[in-house]
Amino acid sequence: MERKGYHFFAFLSRMKHINRWGLMRNTSTENIAEHSHQVAVIAHALAVIKNTRFGGTVDADRVAVLALYHDATETITGDMPTPIKYFNPAIRTAYKEIEQVAGEKLVAMLPDEMRPVYRGIFFKKEGDGELWALVKAADKISAYIKCVEERLAGNGEFKSAERSTRELIMRDAEPCVEYFMDRFIGSYSLTLDEQD
Hints:
This protein has one domain (about 10-190): Hypothetical protein af1432, CATH 1.10.3210. The protein has helices at about 10, 30-55, 60-70, 75, 80-85, 90-105, 115-120, 130-150, 160-170, 175-185. α2 packs across α8, α2 (about 30-55) packs across α10 and α6 (about 90-105) runs antiparallel to α7. The chain is mainly alpha-helical. It is about 60% helix and about 0% strand.
């Protein structure tokens, strides 16, 4: 007899309750649902730019889906601050294992016939390396945008993070990332009237 209730989507709706930047004073909170949407939009744009301007052949739709779910396991693990997550290789490895277990737990909340599709989203598949690189770049760009927004709101707490995040983005950046940073990032420093 098939189970009647599945908890996957209700669990994902809890992404709105998990705030990012827990170690820093924020002028406005940002949760992982908002962040994941922004990363999906940017990752999709990076893929489109790569394909239309730089001869790429990546699946922009799949990039967007991977980005949309990239932090979904944090509904189980919570958001671990970056300085802790990357403190040493042992912590990073252990956290990756915890994310793997959390992903399996989430996939288990789906009907059997849906699990392979979502397993293909939560767990890296062979050949998806180029797509995940765009998601990772978009994730960093999203963090940079948060830093810019906080600085513009008068929060000096993010000044150092803004500088180091930009350096991280631009270090060995793909042409599509450089293009995005050159053509689109400046608008995040403008008022609504200035964007007209």
